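Our example copied in:
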Amino acid sequence: MFTKILVANRGEIACRVIKTAKRMGIKTVAVYSEADAGALHVEMADEAVAIGPAPSAQSYLVAEKIVEACKATGAQAVHPGYGFLSEKAHFCELLKANGITFIGPDVHAIGAMGDKIESKKLARAAGVSTVPGYLGVIRDDEEAVRIARDIGYPVMVKASAGGGGKGMRVAYDDAQVREGFRSASNEARSSFADDRVFIEKYVEEPRHIEIQVLADAFGNTVYLGERECSIQRRHQKVIEEAPSPFLDEATRRAMGEQAVALAKAVQYRSAGTVEFIVDKDRNFYFLEMNTRLQVEHPVTEMVTGLDLVELMIRVAAGEKLPITQDDVKLNGWSIEARVYAEEPTRGFLPSTGRVTRYRPPVEGTKADGSIVRVDTGVYEGGEISMFYDPMIAKLITWAPTRAQATQAMGDALDAFQIRGVGQNISFLAALMGLERFREGRLTTNLIAEEFRDGFHGVELPPAQLKKLLAVALMAQRRAAGRDGMVSGQLAGHGRRAGEQWVARHNQENHAATVREVDGGADVAFADGTVPVRGEWDPGQVLWQGTVGGESLSVQVEQRGTGWLLRQGGAELLVQVLTPKAAALKALMPVKLPPDMSKYLLSPMPGLLVSVAVKEGDAVKAGQELAVVEAMKMENILRAESDGTVKKVHAEKGASLAVDDKIIEFE
């Protein structure tokens, strides 16, 4: 067994690998860029080596620097995590040439499966079902259009070396193929240094289901069940679960056997994932094989009881797999939610900056038997950089049933406190509350179909709204009581907090009487009393207890004369006023925001890749105006209406902040 390994990655996956290595008694070496000098994975490791500037192309993607770090520290093996160098055959070859073990498959398997075009050819040869498509290299957008017409619309335009939703576009007509070909090529060139693109049939009403495989160097290969990864936005996974609510045992076995056949065909060893697209009739087609650990591997660990990182390390050290296919049993249900630094109500634009508050839900087994796990590389006071993926954490729950795992996830999301950067927790909680999700009626189009106009928060039913209003009223009564506790006052002449209050939300007043009782308060509205029970002191961000008998976790923050509450995907700003103040408030004029409709503003921090117009140009609605790159993704900004360009405020190559002016119209 190795005595020291280097983790050639950053963020949550580096921390994840370090945890297992420490449990195995193996010393660890972290590598870090200038932007990550204070990162959590650096602190966790036994040693750390600086490898260059913030851009990954000058640090984490430079294989020679990883080899130098191994030599300098005596690391005998490298775990690549996912992304960066994890599927680069030349990196594997370089390690081997320097006598360093790669904790993953060998060069042959990486090369065979790392290219989406070649991998589909190999899959067909191994008897694996594949999607109809054109697997040759496409020279230009005109050839792409001809191929798309032959296959039949809709089609998927994909980068051969792509992954993580990058270099991938769905096209329904010739124009979208041309645009998709250009953007997919550009993103692939930027992210993977490989701009080859191919086209395949787009399966409608699709599910994305993948099979986890494990193989050793002695010919033993097993599959560990499946993961359902259908909840995606822009082809990037958001929610994953194991097992799938859609598969029956016969389909699971057939998919697993095909995945094993493909792994054996390329003499695979280590952990790997074979991804399939599944239609409404449970027909399944091979998409690709990821020759690395997947982001969503924790849900498989939770339902199998296996540590995939440990097994990868043991296989790389020359050990046999300790299990056979008959030993693999799926127990209970696990769900993973990816917590990102982004603004869901602003089109999911990425968010960067300092994390001023980071309080994840408590990990471990709960009273109801459910389990909460948090994989993260973030800490309070740390930075979310514009140079890397915006993931903050992976939140994982396990329970005996899918319904219980879903409830546990909703509760954990409500208790997850993040401030300083935008985050998608409310959106994730809203997904957990969807009837369609709870029933398991999933496709990769779910988010686009359920949130056609974007995400704007959850509109609560009246009964649930009243419960949150009751929490706000309780908080105001408690805060007012604290404000009345002033030292040095005369006995019997202290400030007294009243019981009559008005909760104002969306221009509507909700009058109530709030009486403090042991363990909470009774909030009496005109149509009934809502008991609020739970310990809470002013200044605490998280309130937990029962409201009307229902257990709730509500994030509560004072905002001026009101309270901002977050729960179940809803965010409410509730003003709590005395009856007299509420009456006066209703008479106040509403201040309107300034009119910025004549400007194209940057919707995110990023790099201005191109500007497609100049001063004096007439533009049409839907026309491309500019392209902004953020978090390694290209975002095309289009005209919302016809107009004429008055002034271009930013030039190609400019670094933009949120709401920076790009173009002004007459």
About this structure: The chain has six domains: 4-103, 106-131+207-331, 132-201, 332-451, 462-482+497-585, 599-665. The domain at 106-131+207-331 is CATH 3.30.470.20 (D-amino Acid Aminotransferase; Chain A, domain 1). The chain has a mean pLDDT of 92. The CA atoms of residues 49 and 69 lie 6 Å apart.
